[in-house]
Amino acid sequence: MRDDAAHWMLAQGITGQWQPGQLGEDHFRKAMAGGEVWIAEADGRVAGAWELWWEDEDAWGPQPPVAGYVHRLMVDRSSTRPGTGRLLLDAAERRIAAKGRTFVRLDCLAGNERLNAYYLNVGYRVVGHKAGKPQPGGVPKSFTLMEKDLLSD
User: Fold this and answer.
1) pLDDT band at 97 (very low <50, low <70, confident <90, very high)
2) Confidence label for 19 from pLDDT (cuts 50, 70 and 90)
3) Sign of the C-alpha dihedral, residues 8, 12, 17, 20?
4) What is the pTM of this model?
5) Angle 83-113-41 (CA atoms, 0-180°, nearest 5)?
6) How far apart are CA 69 and CA 53, in angstroms?
7) Mean pLDDT for the chain?
8) What CA–CA distance (Å, rounded) separates 58 from 42?
9) Which domains, and CATH codes, for the chain?
10) For strand 125-135 and strand 138-149, is the pairing parallel, antiparallel, or unpaired?
11) How many CA atoms are closer than 13 Å to the CA of 39, on its beta-carbon side?
């Protein structure tokens, strides 16, 4: 699914975000060891997925335990309806709140205006920038740091 999402991005002219073949099973095994990987199903098929981390020092530095960090939110664009990504993000936000954390944080490739606008439109705000964040299987990149206060919803 991640490779399909990467191919879709490239077809849309989004070239700096994900690359096909960039992450394999080892990445997701490590993500499960240090956080959570969620898979969404609809009609017996995988509809989407996301990673949920409980810390992200590479992007945010040392932080008190007040946030959950959403990474690699993706949907199967061949079989899901518009709005599926938002449903998955809602589920991630509920999971973070259930753990007693009050903020959802994520980072978006700084040059991906479409994705940055998506998160702004669903209630996130820009709180900073991170230049040179290490990337699994790739060169460091610059990101926009965003967060949403779950108590203000």
Assistant:
1) very high
2) low
3) positive
4) 0.80
5) 25
6) 5
7) 81
8) 33
9) 2-149 (3.40.630.30)
10) antiparallel
11) 8
Q: Which residue has the tokens 């959403």?
A: 70
As a residue count, the chain comes to 153
Q: Give strand pairing partners of 36.
A: 52
* Residue that has been written with the tokens 């669903």 in this structure: 122
What mean pLDDT comes out for the span 45-56?
86
Instruction: Give the 3-state DSSP-derived string for the chain, with helices as H, strands as E and coil as C.
Output: CHHHHHHHHHHCCCCCCCCCCCCCHHHHHHHHHHEEEEEEEECCEEEEEEEEECCCHHHHCCCCCCEEEEEEEEECCCCCCCCHHHHHHHHHHHHHHHCCCCEEEEEEECCCHHHHHHHHHCCCEEEEEEEEEEECCEEEEEEEEEEEECCCC
